[in-house]
Amino acid sequence: MDKMSATVQKLFQLAMKNKIWATFIIFVKFISFISIMMYLRIRDEDVKHSLPIEVKCPATVPYTLSSSSPLSGHGIYFLETSDQTNPNFLVMCSLESAARAHPKIKVTFLMKGLRKPARPKNLGISLLRCFPNIEIRPLNLSDLFANTPFASWYASSQFRWKPYRLPILSDACRLAIMWKYGGFYLDTDFIVLKNLKNLTNSLGIQSNYLLNGAFLSFEQGHKFIEICMQDFVDNYNAWIWGHQGPQLYTRVFKKWCSIKRLRDRRVCHGVSTLPPEAFYPIRWQDWMKYFEAITTTDFNKLFQNTYAAHVWNTKSQRTGLKLGSKTILDQLYSNYCPSTYEIMKMYL
């Protein structure tokens, strides 16, 4: 019996030692992760602080439209729902590419961090001001959500901590914009390749099972958007990633068309779902392909049916872009936002 007790005690001590060792390993890995994140943040801040706050408008900026010329058609909207007011190169490229593809349509960048009419002084804002059809405006959430199903939701939830607060705010804002104003909405990690004017009441298919609202094109006050807003509020869940985003559009479209699978219908009751190559030619699982070099011929073939390329910034933002490398992302920058690319060559 004593021998058995001694054996049990040894096993217990061994287990405790392993537990301490496992805890130590987890602690070391956590400290390493924090150190890496701090290094990346400091590196990014160093890059930002080394950039000028003003830039002379590059010769590549098109001057086909004077600032006094009237802008026609529904607008194109981009959002920044954080307090960030210093657009990075991808955001600059996204807006520039949209402005170039739509020289006579207003491109509006709504920024929550702009609390005063005066614009902050930084490289991104300075370059975007060079384009006469780009307008940078403050994003007032209370005003935007007024007279929509989001008004009471926002009033009751804005002070509660949520793990996906900024994406959820963005999900709500884009729906409110489509409902109130109509036009086009794009995430700031899109690079626009073609004019979008022929796309109406449509959104993109991300996969066989999921729609995505990173691109939206709807008429003002469209019933589909109204249903999406109501579903957002009625089935609100702040703890599930994408519940108010891709999953919302997918479940609403299935109800809209009375289908169980997305492949059963692509168009119904005036709403169209566009194939993945239209806006998501490279799947998020394959985001590293944007950093692979390809020939111009293969590049053109890849994007021949693409209106705008979603580069999955949440995945790709920490991967360095080597200028002149002929990677897919490098060619997207150089072809569709040459002014941003020119500045990147000067300061990176």
From TrEMBL:
Compartment(s) of residence: Golgi apparatus membrane
EC main group: transferase
Residue stretches spanning the membrane: 20-40
Domain Alpha 1,4-glycosyltransferase: from-to ranges: 218-344
GO MF annotation terms: lactosylceramide 4-alpha-galactosyltransferase activity
Recorded family membership: Belongs to the glycosyltransferase 32 family.
Protein name: Lactosylceramide 4-alpha-galactosyltransferase
Annotated source species: Geotrypetes seraphini (Gaboon caecilian)
